[in-house]
Specification:
By secondary structure, this protein is mostly helical. Helices cover 73% and strands 0% of the residues. The chain is built from twelve helices and no strands. The mean pLDDT is 87.
Length: 228
Amino acid sequence: KPEGSNRTKARAMGMLPDSKDETEKLLRLLTPVIKMCCSLRSVEGLRACMESLGGVGYCENNEDSGALNIARLFRDANVNPIWEGTGSVLAEDLLRALKVGKKEAKQEFEEVFGKWVMRVVSRLETLGTQFEEMVGDVKARYEKLRILVGSRSEDELLWQGRVVVGHFEAIVCAMLLMSDAAVDADNIAYNVAERWVRTKVKLGVTDENIDWRKEVEMDRRIFLGDQD
Protein backbone atom coordinates (compact mmCIF):
# COMPACT_ATOMS: atom_id res chain seq x y z
CA LYS A 1 0.00 0.00 0.00
CA PRO A 2 1.67 3.29 -1.15
CA GLU A 3 2.14 5.91 1.55
CA GLY A 4 1.87 9.70 1.34
CA SER A 5 -0.44 12.24 -0.33
CA ASN A 6 -2.91 11.34 -3.08
CA ARG A 7 -0.52 12.73 -5.69
CA THR A 8 2.37 10.74 -4.23
CA LYS A 9 0.23 7.60 -4.21
CA ALA A 10 -0.86 8.18 -7.81
CA ARG A 11 2.75 8.57 -8.88
CA ALA A 12 3.72 5.47 -6.90
CA MET A 13 1.08 3.51 -8.82
CA GLY A 14 2.42 4.79 -12.15
CA MET A 15 -0.71 6.80 -12.86
CA LEU A 16 1.16 10.05 -13.54
CA PRO A 17 3.38 10.21 -16.66
CA ASP A 18 7.00 11.24 -16.17
CA SER A 19 6.92 14.44 -18.21
CA LYS A 20 4.58 17.27 -19.14
CA ASP A 21 4.74 16.24 -22.80
CA GLU A 22 3.68 12.65 -21.98
CA THR A 23 0.88 13.95 -19.75
CA GLU A 24 -0.48 16.23 -22.47
CA LYS A 25 -0.40 13.45 -25.06
CA LEU A 26 -2.15 11.00 -22.74
CA LEU A 27 -4.83 13.54 -21.81
CA ARG A 28 -5.32 14.34 -25.50
CA LEU A 29 -6.15 10.68 -26.07
CA LEU A 30 -8.32 10.20 -23.01
CA THR A 31 -10.33 13.45 -23.12
CA PRO A 32 -12.80 12.32 -25.82
CA VAL A 33 -13.08 8.93 -24.10
CA ILE A 34 -13.90 10.58 -20.76
CA LYS A 35 -16.41 13.00 -22.28
CA MET A 36 -18.24 10.30 -24.23
CA CYS A 37 -18.30 7.62 -21.55
CA CYS A 38 -19.20 9.87 -18.61
CA SER A 39 -22.03 11.43 -20.62
CA LEU A 40 -23.48 8.06 -21.66
CA ARG A 41 -23.03 6.36 -18.28
CA SER A 42 -24.72 9.23 -16.42
CA VAL A 43 -27.83 8.71 -18.55
CA GLU A 44 -27.72 4.95 -17.92
CA GLY A 45 -27.21 5.45 -14.18
CA LEU A 46 -30.07 7.92 -13.82
CA ARG A 47 -32.39 5.70 -15.84
CA ALA A 48 -31.62 2.82 -13.45
CA CYS A 49 -32.15 5.14 -10.49
CA MET A 50 -35.50 6.23 -11.92
CA GLU A 51 -36.53 2.59 -12.31
CA SER A 52 -35.53 1.70 -8.76
CA LEU A 53 -37.69 4.52 -7.37
CA GLY A 54 -40.71 3.55 -9.45
CA GLY A 55 -43.35 6.24 -9.83
CA VAL A 56 -41.44 8.65 -7.58
CA GLY A 57 -38.53 8.41 -9.98
CA TYR A 58 -40.66 8.93 -13.07
CA CYS A 59 -42.75 11.88 -11.89
CA GLU A 60 -41.56 15.47 -11.72
CA ASN A 61 -41.03 15.75 -7.96
CA ASN A 62 -40.41 19.33 -6.85
CA GLU A 63 -40.81 18.78 -3.12
CA ASP A 64 -37.77 19.47 -0.91
CA SER A 65 -36.41 21.80 -3.58
CA GLY A 66 -36.46 18.98 -6.10
CA ALA A 67 -33.86 16.86 -4.29
CA LEU A 68 -35.55 13.71 -5.61
CA ASN A 69 -36.48 15.08 -9.03
CA ILE A 70 -34.81 12.20 -10.89
CA ALA A 71 -37.00 12.85 -13.93
CA ARG A 72 -35.49 16.33 -14.33
CA LEU A 73 -31.95 15.07 -13.75
CA PHE A 74 -32.51 12.31 -16.31
CA ARG A 75 -33.86 14.77 -18.87
CA ASP A 76 -31.01 17.21 -18.27
CA ALA A 77 -28.35 14.48 -18.40
CA ASN A 78 -29.45 13.53 -21.91
CA VAL A 79 -28.07 16.78 -23.25
CA ASN A 80 -24.49 15.79 -22.38
CA PRO A 81 -24.06 13.16 -25.12
CA ILE A 82 -25.00 15.95 -27.53
CA TRP A 83 -23.50 19.02 -25.85
CA GLU A 84 -20.13 17.37 -25.11
CA GLY A 85 -20.06 15.97 -28.64
CA THR A 86 -22.00 13.03 -30.05
CA GLY A 87 -20.47 9.59 -29.68
CA SER A 88 -19.47 9.43 -33.32
CA VAL A 89 -17.82 12.86 -33.21
CA LEU A 90 -15.85 12.02 -30.05
CA ALA A 91 -14.84 8.61 -31.42
CA GLU A 92 -13.52 10.35 -34.52
CA ASP A 93 -11.66 12.83 -32.32
CA LEU A 94 -9.99 9.94 -30.48
CA LEU A 95 -8.90 8.40 -33.78
CA ARG A 96 -7.59 11.78 -34.87
CA ALA A 97 -5.53 11.99 -31.68
CA LEU A 98 -4.18 8.51 -32.45
CA LYS A 99 -3.13 9.84 -35.87
CA VAL A 100 -5.04 7.02 -37.55
CA GLY A 101 -4.28 6.95 -41.26
CA LYS A 102 -0.70 8.06 -40.74
CA LYS A 103 2.24 5.69 -40.57
CA GLU A 104 3.12 6.77 -37.02
CA ALA A 105 -0.32 5.78 -35.66
CA LYS A 106 0.78 2.44 -34.18
CA GLN A 107 3.87 4.01 -32.64
CA GLU A 108 1.82 6.87 -31.18
CA PHE A 109 -0.63 4.40 -29.64
CA GLU A 110 2.08 2.24 -28.05
CA GLU A 111 4.30 5.09 -26.86
CA VAL A 112 1.47 7.09 -25.27
CA PHE A 113 -1.31 4.75 -24.20
CA GLY A 114 0.59 1.46 -24.17
CA LYS A 115 3.42 2.87 -22.11
CA TRP A 116 0.98 4.21 -19.52
CA VAL A 117 -0.98 0.95 -19.28
CA MET A 118 2.13 -1.19 -18.91
CA ARG A 119 3.62 1.14 -16.28
CA VAL A 120 0.50 0.88 -14.11
CA VAL A 121 0.28 -2.86 -14.71
CA SER A 122 3.89 -3.35 -13.65
CA ARG A 123 3.18 -1.54 -10.35
CA LEU A 124 0.14 -3.72 -9.70
CA GLU A 125 2.17 -6.86 -10.40
CA THR A 126 4.58 -5.94 -7.60
CA LEU A 127 1.77 -6.04 -5.03
CA GLY A 128 1.44 -9.82 -5.00
CA THR A 129 -1.00 -12.23 -6.56
CA GLN A 130 -4.29 -10.53 -5.66
CA PHE A 131 -4.38 -8.53 -8.90
CA GLU A 132 -2.77 -11.21 -11.06
CA GLU A 133 -5.91 -12.46 -12.80
CA MET A 134 -7.32 -8.99 -13.34
CA VAL A 135 -4.03 -7.75 -14.74
CA GLY A 136 -3.96 -10.69 -17.14
CA ASP A 137 -7.45 -9.83 -18.38
CA VAL A 138 -6.50 -6.18 -18.89
CA LYS A 139 -3.37 -7.17 -20.81
CA ALA A 140 -5.46 -9.41 -23.07
CA ARG A 141 -7.95 -6.60 -23.74
CA TYR A 142 -5.10 -4.17 -24.44
CA GLU A 143 -3.61 -6.61 -26.93
CA LYS A 144 -6.94 -6.82 -28.78
CA LEU A 145 -7.03 -3.03 -28.98
CA ARG A 146 -3.39 -2.82 -30.10
CA ILE A 147 -4.02 -5.29 -32.91
CA LEU A 148 -7.21 -3.48 -33.93
CA VAL A 149 -5.51 -0.08 -34.14
CA GLY A 150 -2.44 -1.46 -35.90
CA SER A 151 -4.11 -3.69 -38.47
CA ARG A 152 -7.22 -1.86 -39.70
CA SER A 153 -7.53 0.84 -42.32
CA GLU A 154 -8.51 4.39 -41.44
CA ASP A 155 -11.96 3.92 -42.95
CA GLU A 156 -12.61 0.72 -41.02
CA LEU A 157 -11.47 2.28 -37.74
CA LEU A 158 -13.77 5.23 -38.35
CA TRP A 159 -16.58 2.75 -38.85
CA GLN A 160 -15.59 0.98 -35.60
CA GLY A 161 -14.96 4.20 -33.70
CA ARG A 162 -17.35 3.41 -30.86
CA VAL A 163 -15.79 -0.05 -30.51
CA VAL A 164 -12.37 1.57 -30.11
CA VAL A 165 -13.74 3.93 -27.44
CA GLY A 166 -15.27 0.93 -25.65
CA HIS A 167 -11.86 -0.75 -25.49
CA PHE A 168 -10.29 2.40 -24.05
CA GLU A 169 -13.07 2.78 -21.47
CA ALA A 170 -12.75 -0.83 -20.28
CA ILE A 171 -8.97 -0.63 -19.90
CA VAL A 172 -8.71 2.85 -18.37
CA CYS A 173 -11.45 2.25 -15.80
CA ALA A 174 -9.83 -1.05 -14.85
CA MET A 175 -6.50 0.71 -14.29
CA LEU A 176 -8.13 3.36 -12.11
CA LEU A 177 -10.23 0.94 -10.07
CA MET A 178 -7.39 -1.51 -9.44
CA SER A 179 -5.05 1.32 -8.46
CA ASP A 180 -7.69 2.73 -6.11
CA ALA A 181 -8.10 -0.68 -4.49
CA ALA A 182 -4.34 -1.01 -4.12
CA VAL A 183 -3.95 2.43 -2.55
CA ASP A 184 -6.90 2.01 -0.17
CA ALA A 185 -6.15 -1.64 0.63
CA ASP A 186 -9.92 -1.94 0.91
CA ASN A 187 -11.89 -5.13 0.27
CA ILE A 188 -14.92 -3.32 -1.13
CA ALA A 189 -12.78 -1.28 -3.54
CA TYR A 190 -11.07 -4.51 -4.62
CA ASN A 191 -14.44 -6.15 -5.33
CA VAL A 192 -15.61 -3.13 -7.34
CA ALA A 193 -12.47 -3.45 -9.47
CA GLU A 194 -12.91 -7.21 -9.81
CA ARG A 195 -16.52 -6.77 -10.91
CA TRP A 196 -15.56 -4.20 -13.53
CA VAL A 197 -12.89 -6.47 -14.98
CA ARG A 198 -15.19 -9.49 -14.90
CA THR A 199 -18.13 -7.75 -16.58
CA LYS A 200 -16.49 -5.08 -18.77
CA VAL A 201 -12.94 -6.13 -19.58
CA LYS A 202 -13.44 -9.83 -20.32
CA LEU A 203 -14.96 -10.32 -23.74
CA GLY A 204 -17.74 -12.87 -24.02
CA VAL A 205 -16.81 -14.59 -20.76
CA THR A 206 -19.31 -15.50 -18.06
CA ASP A 207 -18.61 -17.25 -14.79
CA GLU A 208 -21.38 -19.64 -13.83
CA ASN A 209 -19.57 -20.59 -10.63
CA ILE A 210 -20.07 -17.24 -8.93
CA ASP A 211 -21.57 -17.54 -5.45
CA TRP A 212 -24.68 -15.38 -5.78
CA ARG A 213 -25.09 -15.06 -2.00
CA LYS A 214 -21.64 -13.51 -1.70
CA GLU A 215 -22.47 -11.20 -4.62
CA VAL A 216 -25.66 -10.04 -2.91
CA GLU A 217 -23.76 -9.37 0.32
CA MET A 218 -21.15 -7.37 -1.60
CA ASP A 219 -23.95 -5.42 -3.33
CA ARG A 220 -25.17 -4.42 0.11
CA ARG A 221 -21.69 -3.41 1.30
CA ILE A 222 -20.97 -1.38 -1.86
CA PHE A 223 -24.29 0.46 -1.55
CA LEU A 224 -24.62 0.85 2.23
CA GLY A 225 -21.02 0.44 3.43
CA ASP A 226 -19.91 -1.70 6.33
CA GLN A 227 -22.35 -1.50 9.20
CA ASP A 228 -21.86 -2.44 12.83
